[in-house]
Amino acid sequence: MNPIEHVLKHFPLIILDGAMATELEGRGCNLNDSLWSAGILLENPELIRQVHLDYFAAGADCAITASYQATVEGYAARGLGKDEAIRLIQKSVRVAVQARDEFWELPDNRFNRPKPLVAASVGPYGAFLADGSEYRGDYRLNESELMNFHRLRMKALIDAGADIFACETIPSFTEAKAIVKLLEEFPDTYAWISFSAKDERHISDGTPIAECAQWLDQQRQVAAIGINCSPTHIITPLIQEIRKHTAKPIVVYPNSGEHYDPVTKTWSGASSEKDYGEYAYEWYGHGARLIGGCCRTSPEDIGRIAGWARK
């Protein structure tokens, strides 16, 4: 069963969670590391569970796991063996499932909302490189090589009990195609494909979002198409472009509005002048049906979405 389709039959919107990594930083974690939030799976998984719980309490209908940068190759560079790496990748799902089930046990948490989903984050190859290339898509791997990179992690995530894949911050149309082809090896599983964007019309590698949406619209296991980890001000025109070329649900979860420098790994500028909940309401009006936040967003931002979505 396509879990997104199932929820949207009964509810008008799926509220996603917000940032994991920058939220962990705000709680005292040092993420200046090539493993990023995946390192906290090793050091303090209980804190990840608490972040998931806080997002559910704020109104999130979906937890995105802390596996964005969790790969066998990345953990191997830290000196961990394959089995230990897979255990940690799967822990990202189990921690989220534990938080979801704990939250859902309380009857008061079930009013006017679906049972939350657990989406297994599949970050791009560029996230493993940790050099900012998830915002460029200029790594030179072919489709087969990209499939080989993603295969082991995707199998581990779905075996651990994730409801759906969140294939996110994908900068390259070639990589999106590789992931979709790889999905055929997991025929009962669905994924959303969410790109990082270069501007109002193109994903990071320069491919028109219209071309991506048109191709993905034909892929059975793609449950939603959209944009994440991109500035708030370009989201509405991107939704409009996507909507012209697909009937699938549109997913958006941009950054807070600040500018990220992937070389120095620092943020600058101010958050968007408009309230995040107001932006989300605008995106909903243009057709987005899965809405949340990415870097520098918080449970408070997700609560602002729930504030109008659940009136």
UniProtKB/TrEMBL annotation:
Listed GO biological process terms: methionine biosynthetic process; methylation; S-methylmethionine cycle
One Pfam family from the record: S-methyl_trans
GO molecular function, one term: zinc ion binding
Cofactor note: Binds 1 zinc ion per subunit.
Known cofactor(s): Zn(2+)
The Hcy-binding domain, residue ranges: 2-309
Binding locations of Zn(2+): 229, 294-295
The organism's place on the tree of life at top rank: Bacteria
Record key words, sorted: Metal-binding, Methyltransferase, Transferase, Zinc
NCBIfam families tied to this protein: PRK09485.1 (NF007020)
Protein name: S-methylmethionine:homocysteine methyltransferase
Lineage of the organism: Bacteria, Bacillati, Bacillota, Bacilli, Bacillales
